[in-house]
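P.,

For your records, the input lines for the assembly:
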Amino acid sequence: MSGKTLYQKVWETHEVRKLESGQSQLFIDLHLIHEVTSPQAFGMLRELGLGVAMPKRTFATVDHIVPTDSRQEPFADPLAQTMIEELRKNTRDFGIELFDIGSGKQGIVHVVGPEEGLTQPGFTIVCGDSHTSTHGAFGAVAFGIGTTQVRDVLATQTVAMPRLKVRRINVKGELQPGVTAKDVILHVIRTLGVKGGQGYAYEYGGPVIEKMSMEERMTVCNMSIEGGARVGYVNPDETTFAFLKGRPYAPAEDEWEAALTRWRGLASDPDAGYDDVVEINGSEIAPYVTWGINPGQAITVEEAVPDPEKVPEEEKELVREALEYMKLEPGKPILGQRIDVAFVGSCTNGRLSDLRQAARVVRSMGGRVAPGVRAIVVPGSEQVARQAEAEGLDRIFRDAGFEWRYAGCSMCLAMNPDKLVGDEISISSSNRNFKGRQGSPRGRTMLASPAMVTAAALAGEVVDVRQVLGVKA
Amino acid sequence: METIKKIRGRAVVIPGDEIDTDRIVPARYLKAVTFDGLGEALFYDERYDARGKPKDHPLNRPEHRGASVMVVGAGFGSGSSREHAPQAIKRAGFKAIIGESFAEIFFGNATQLGLACVTLDPEDLGVLAEWVRANADGEVEIDLEAGEVRFGERVAPLKIPEAAREALLSGRWDPLAELLESAAAVRRMDEKLPRPGRPGGYR
Ligand code: SF4
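Structure tokens returned:
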């Protein structure tokens, strides 16, 4: 008998029953909602005459559409105002707690959940957003769902789901200075492919992951979905527990000890059986930049943009399409690629440690944002903003010519006024470089770590952040 | 609920692999509190230029107007979990998508809407795409019971995960009714499992 994985343990305690289709009905501990994918679900609920089954297991915030340059209501975009009003009304009508603008708790849903201690080990967590995998950093089973499923969870606190296989990803060795969690996950996606994770939950482990802070683990789990895996998680350990202690919604007082005991039993057993195991050598990872139109099209800053003539036959077409869209020259080093826009933020890299990372680069490089470059820093939540301001990070950014914004998703998906214009090229700490993702149908995106983004903002072109920081051997 | 056993209709080919949901429905069309009118937004940036003038896109060609079967490549629907993508496809009149493979969340979302997503092996898919291009007024039949896609003289075996096939055939593609049946068991689970918040339950 082999042992169990965390995924298996959580599944077994949350499976209500098998449905006729062969899927399982899964109980959801925590449901997070935001203004973009929930209004239609509430609409369906009302149409069916149903209520919200367990409103106290649902929490709401606004992030996708909120303007980040001004908090003045009504917003310039009347549709944004309507969507936020709708969420206010829905949460009021059904007794759901809303972390509204100005509450001190508003922010990107995947930043807010952990920050408030809502995200806990062993929880099943869903949200109408594919980056819900972020919460897996705490040893939760967390995944994105569609709006009809948001309706299902509101109405029943359960969802119909097929059970996934589990792939263990061991990141061995030690990260080199200047290499970040973002580089690790871009490396994993490049290695396993953007579809490699289909049908799998990714369990990240090994010395590199164990050494990571919670914020770094969140960055890794966040982008699981970009590798095709709907779920990504890390077994909870002392780092996890230390992060949660004292958070507003985490267990407290006599509940804390009981929670610790429960959480300690959750990690995958040493003899757990995995459907697949992959070894990654962390020591070999260098800072990454994407050159194409999916997050798997990534190279280290030392490499050159691929040449469609030199890649395997089956990749030729994809490479050609990507280069044509990106207007990049085949075979040319990515180093020195000029940029128009730099964006630090998003649920991947909009946390305090990311902003510190960026500020450190500003401090060591000195100088200002390169002429002609638009650079914005968007904190992931009001709390991140407050802490950053308390540390004076906002001043560092502003003095160097960055715009310092209010919390939200901003230029990650450009549903608010923060958009690329025409065929501008951006370097962005977000998670998607799809065609048109940053608001202009011809806009181009290169994904990288906050440190690399900041260095590029100051240099006006892609540079190796390790050189800037003086850590390159 | 409506059982879905056979789908028959004219088809259109959307070429390319890894077509993500940002391309299927650009983010600005997510700014609405209902899904109404989303059919219009389908592939908007690929169908129209900046001034709203139609470009040469399969969906704009008159011979494909009224098509109800979409033929796509590999990895269709990757990216965001926005249900707007399958909603737009459904609202534009499509009942089925035939491709090489689908992204997981997209597949689940589509199935819940009764939009059948089936896969063919790459060779059959290539033949189908050729055939559709040459026979815009020909009909493609997807037979979920027999597990076949038929067009012209050809019969190709289709693949679809058993759970999805079962759901469509039995008319239980929208699982809500079934989920509601277990309300009592769910309540017991709620009592047993920890909740976000302080001792004594919620804050
Ligand atoms: S920051 Fe980007 S990826 Fe994250 S929730 Fe917002 S829009 Fe989605």
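Two observations worth noting. Strands of chain B lie at 6-13, 69-71, 96-99, 116-119, 139-143, 148-151, 154-157. Chain B touches chain A through 66 residues (CB under 8 Å).

Regards
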